[in-house]
Design a protein that fits this description.
By secondary structure, the protein is an alpha+beta fold. Helix content is 28%, strand content 32%. It has eleven helices and 25 strands. The strands form five sheets. The chain has a six-stranded mixed β-sheet with strand order 3-2-1-4-5-6, with helices on both faces. A five-stranded mixed β-sheet has the order 11-13-9-7-15, with no helix packed on it. Helix 3 packs parallel to helix 8 and helix 5 runs parallel beside helix 6. The protein starts with 7 loop residues before the first helix and ends with a strand.
Length: 528
């Protein structure tokens, strides 16, 4: 196999080619990065104009071309003819063009649709008038008359191309560059500007061409574009066209100024947060008719209830007039303060939205179109009702059991002191009449009795501590027969005798002797 031997010069050349290729790849890679990031920043103007339908919005163009003798110098007139064709090619059939030449007097060469640039340019004279002057005032008068027609568009541009200054012929209505005729022109332009978006673009084609500035004296919103040379005329005409399309876009977007995004709860009824979480829905609505809107850093919160709200994307994009509903999760609930007994708590959660509203069109349209998008999300609709069962179901039973644990022993203690069990018997004898004794058997905690002498009464006990220790005294209440008012009462010590209502009551701790036969029935008592 034959080995190929390279010369040192060939090797050096190869190395240089490889290095140059690497540099070229690096440059190309670097050039693609800005393009990618630019596309990520949002659409460009052409895409926006297409989405807005700017091409479908008619625009009035009045193109004033100087055809005085000086335009023949340095090929200016030929350049104007060729570049005008390119400029007109960027217009649409919906646009209206008035092509006017002016020297000693203005003349409308073409008035109609902008659909055929070649046809329009062909209406220009083959060469400028070698003896013609420059009556800019008369040209502007004809331009305004064209824009004052009843079917004029809402956006209008006056484009003036001249290489000289105002030099009218004798008998012109505008003999000088100022004065009452120019004031009248300016007032007419102001009246036009009140109902249309009127702008002027003046292109002086030679140094010292002050005539272009006369357009600014009449049309207040005039931009003077100064090409560095006649060869730059095409790009400057393109700038005038771009500016006019921007004004058309601004006209369309004017109704979206100050319109942003509104958020509201979906009216789905009260949300139950007994388990600590629930779902709800939030709707974002764009009030813009043409403008897409974006909410960045979106976050939801609520006033009036302790709620955490999650599930909303941090970046939302809404098309013109679009509404989007997002499901979200609620965590927390009404403030269950106070005693922790079982109950239903309700609260009204007022929606709060944080985030920045912008439009992906803002960067591309600035500074020509100021969208004035409200930076904050507005909140509409009413609050969301949230409810939850709070507290413990065992609290009230626990409280009741606790009260019973305290009250029952206290009641038992009270009953053992004030309602002790009775024992023994009471022997009942009339004090003054004598007679057969009656007997009342004592049992239970209270005994009602009816002695044979008539009337009725009760006996209960109460415990008292004496010198000999605790004892049970008897509290005897008795109402004699025929008596009214409160019963008489007396206390009888154990084993003692007490008198009340004319009856003597003697306590027998044991059962005591039985009463005489035939006397027990009426004198017995009933235990309670």
């Amino acid at each position: 196999m034959k080995r190929t031997t390279r010369s040192p010069r060939a090797t050096t050349t190869l190395r240089r080619a490889v290095a140059a290729g690497a540099v070229l790849l690096t440059v190309l890679a670097a050039a693609t990065v800005p393009a990618a990031s630019a596309s990520a920043e949002g659409p460009d103007r052409e895409e926006i104009y297409r989405d807005l339908g700017v091409a479908d919005q008619p625009v009035d163009y009045v193109v004033l071309v100087d055809t005085s003798g000086s335009m023949k110098a340095k090929g200016r007139y030929g350049t104007v003819r060729s570049t005008l064709r390119t400029f007109l090619g960027g217009l649409t059939r919906a646009d209206h063009v008035a092509l006017i030449t002016f020297d000693d007097r203005p003349e409308a060469r073409y008035i109609g649709s902008a659909g055929d640039p070649a046809k329009i340019v062909a209406r220009l004279p083959e060469a400028p008038d070698p003896d013609g002057g420059t009556d800019i005032g008369a040209a502007l008068d004809l331009a305004l008359r064209e824009l004052e027609r009843s079917d004029a568009a809402s956006v209008a541009s006056v484009v003036m191309l001249t290489d000289g200054r105002h030099q009218p012929p004798r008998g012109s209505g505008y003999p000088t560059s100022s004065g009452a005729p120019w004031t009248a022109l300016r007032k007419r332009a102001e009246a036009l500007g009140a109902r249309t978006a009127l702008a002027g673009y003046a292109l002086p084609l030679a140094s010292g061409a002050s005539g272009a500035e006369r357009l600014g004296d009449v049309v207040g919103n005039t931009l003077v574009l100064r090409p560095g040379s006649i060869q730059d005329l095409g790009s400057y005409l393109q700038r005038a066209g771009d500016s006019t399309r921007a004004r058309s876009a601004a006209r369309l977007l004017a109704e979206d100024r100050g319109k942003g995004v509104t958020a509201s709860w979906e009216p789905t009824g009260p949300r139950d947060l007994t388990t600590g979480s629930a779902t709800a829905s939030v709707t974002f609505r764009s009030a813009a008719r043409h403008l897409p809107l974006t909410v960045s850093g979106a976050r939801l919160s609520a006033a009036g209830a302790t709620l955490g709200i999650s599930g909303l994307p941090t970046r939302l994009t809404l098309g013109p007039g679009e509404s989007r509903t997002y499901p979200v999760r609620l965590a927390g609930g009404p403030d269950g303060g106070g005693l922790p007994y079982r109950r239903t708590e309700e609260a009204s959660a007022v929606l709060r939205v944080s985030g920045r509203v912008s439009s992906p069109w803002q960067r591309a349209l600035a500074p020509d179109v100021d969208l004035k998008v409200p930076g904050a999300v507005a909140v509409g609709g009413g609050p969301l009702t949230v409810r939850a069962e709070t507290g413990s179901a065992l609290l009230l039973p626990g409280i009741l059991l606790g009260l019973l644990a305290v009250l029952v022993p206290a009641w038992l203690r009270w009953r053992s002191v004030n309602r002790p069990l009775l024992s023994g018997a009471l022997i009942v004898v009339p004090v003054f009449e004598g007679g057969v004794p009656g007997r009342i058997a004592l049992s239970g905690r209270r005994v009602a009795f009816q002695p044979r002498e008539g009337g009725h009464g009760t006996v209960r006990g109460r415990r008292r501590r004496g010198a000999d220790g605790p004892r049970t005294e008897l509290l005897i209440r008795y109402v004699p027969q025929g008596a009214t008012g409160r019963p008489d009462r007396v206390i009888c010590a154990p084993g003692a005798r007490a008198v009340v209502g004319g009856l003597s009551f003697t306590h027998r701790p044991d059962s005591g002797p039985a009463p005489a036969p035939g006397t027990a029935g009426p004198g017995t008592g009933g235990a309670r």
